[in-house]
Amino acid sequence: MKPWIELGTAQVPNNGGVLTLRQRDQEFSISLSGPRGELMNSRRFNSEQQLSVLGCAHLDNKKNARVLVGGMGMGYTLAAALDAVTDSSEVIVADLIPEVVEWNRGPLGECAGRPLDDSRVVEHIGDVGELLVNRSGEYDAVLLDVDNGPEGLTHSDNNWLYSIEGTSSIYKSLVPGGVLAVWSASPDAVYANRLKKAGYQVEVKTVRERPGKGARHAIFLGKKPAGQGGRKRR
């Protein structure tokens, strides 16, 4: 078996550890220093795609939709979001770590078909939370895959995203009928209840890391009911 080759490293802010990108033949891996180990692998990405498939299912024919993707990862969530929306739509992808975006511009980008080259994509290097504070009716869908579940794993400031304050801010940022979709390694009843308290209609879907096999992950879907305020004029 061919050995792993290290392609790059990146420091996670606030002493969050070090990310390492490795390649073995046509397989790529991104790992976090410490006990967490591997975060992503290019052979297991179905649940990341399903985050977009489920979170954008209501947008297949909607013109000028706006989707926010939190977490570049290996590009699979972004690519699936682009596949799910119309040609007139816009997909903003936010990642805190510039090196991760650059890796997706390099050899890693081939995995998901180089979604960053799509003219509908707008990049934001920084905390996705910056795009969710004091927004009203901005997004048709918000897709979050920045942690291992509804807690700040790689970046402690991400805890805000899953708090009642953050959950309520995301709710306000959605248009009526808009959807928040959150990737998680496992179900979390506390978080599901928090979404309900914030006003979302909630579903939790179980998806596999590979089609029909592999580990089971959870996708939290929170829909903002219709009639809760329109899109903000820009």
Description:
The chain is globular and about 55 Å long. It has helices at 46-55, 76-84, 98-105, 159-162, 164-173, 189-197; strands at 5-12, 17-24, 27-32, 37-41, 66-70, 90-95, 121-125, 139-144, 174-184, 201-210, 213-223. The chain is built from six helices and eleven strands. The strands form two sheets. The chain has a seven-stranded mixed beta sheet with strand order 7-6-5-8-9-11-10. A four-stranded antiparallel beta sheet has the order 1-2-3-4, with helices on one face.
Distance between the termini: 54 Å
| Mean pLDDT across all amino acids | 92
Net shape = globular
Strand order of the largest sheet: 7-6-5-8-9-11-10
- Major sheet characteristics: 7 strands, mixed
Tally of contiguous helical segments: 6
Gyration radius, rounded: 17 Å
Percentage of residues assigned to helices: 10-25%
- Identify low-pLDDT runs: none
Q: How many strands in all?
A: 11
- Determine the structural class based on helices, strands and strand pairing: alpha/beta
Strand composition percent: 25-35%
Order of helices and strands: EEEEHEHEHEEHHEHEE
